[in-house]
Amino acid sequence: MQKPKGTYDVNGELGRKTICIVNLARTLMEKYNYEYWRTPLFESSDLFHRGVGETSDIVTKETYDFLDRGNRNMTLRPEGTAGIVRSFVENKYYANPTQPIKTWYYGPMYRYEQPQAGRFREFYQFGVEVFGSSDPAMDAEVISIPVNLYKMLGLKNIKVRINSLGDTDTRLRYREVLMNYFRPHLDKLCDDCKARFEKNPLRIIDCKVDHDLDIMKNAPKILDYLSDASKKHFDEVLEMLDSMEIEYVVDPEIVRGLDYYTDTVFEVTAESSNLGRQNVLCAGGRYNNLAKTIGGVDTPGVGFALGMERLISVLETEGIDLNTEAYLDVYVIPMDENYKKNAISLTQTLRLNGFKADTDYMNKNLKSNFKQADRLNSEFVIIIGSDEIKNKELTVKNNKTREEFKVKMDDIISFFDERIDEHE
Ligand code: HAM
User: With respect to CATH, is domain 328-419 assigned 2.10.60.10?
Assistant: First the structure.
């Protein structure tokens, strides 16, 4: 039996790295005062059709759809935003007096894509969604989250790219301009773009196939067509980023593949990666019409999501070590089977006092147990046998320096408190 194409297993070092990053993200979210939300892995297909958009590649080509046993059309979530917005609306969070509502999430997403480096069919996103505020400072705060997380992890070669797609007025006007511009050149465009021309001409701008054509380079830029309100919003977002000392480039080619965005859109790319086009580490933006589109009260929103797999891959490319080597504080060795109960009880006490402790479950002899302590990279070893029980005194060895100590049973916790740093 093999795992399905485009999926991967997590174990060993990859498991430790994943947990390390998730813990860091969780701690960061506490500092930012965001709350953890979770929504189902599957939702009614209609949510994603309305939310992510009928014309998006995700909905037209990539969803995992199924009929449940009650003949309902269901879809494995291809992204996190639509579900969180549905939850916001369904749980009437718009009526909560504490606005804005700031949320974060972490979990698997499913897209039927052609698997390649940095592109999977099951992948994990960490993301945030914020509701109720149209303040440009809110956009800037959201952008600062991945930037700070990447900085905390030690990533160096990242770039924030930002653009504005304007409000509804802007986009209606720009749509006309783009259609007039591309109409005489339709024969030069790829088949996908020919289809996009009527449905969503904006997407022609970020077409990877037609990217190098002259007509693409000279295409009108949305930033030149922003309404006064959208221009003001965008300028203020940039000022807020400046005041937070977050570097960025304005990149008019960012139009995003999901239909829900309004005003600010952004991506953070890894400049040093060997992921090719998959070097987009995270992406997001504003979606002021989404709550209304899925049938809720008109509420502005802004958020982003980052891909865990791409982040881990770029950390490797940049040679960043997260210090996730396996280790133990203490390995407890019973002299023989008669002292197993004592060993397990002592291990329990150590764990409850915050130490990373383990013991023998394979009835190994003393020599094999010392080897096991080395394999587990244990800093200390405790031996427990008849003398130790009789004298109420444990034999403790520092497994690195080979120093040996006799420690009264009652003093064992304070002994380790003095010698072992607190771990995360
Ligand atoms: P997205 O650009 O589709 O946006 O995905 C965000 C990130 O998820 C990407 O930058 C990438 O790191 C990762 N990602 C996407 N697809 C894959 C894949 N097939 N394999 C591995 N990683 C992938 C969204 O999903 C929006 N919901 C973001 C957002 C949140 N906008 C507002 N709020």
Answer: no
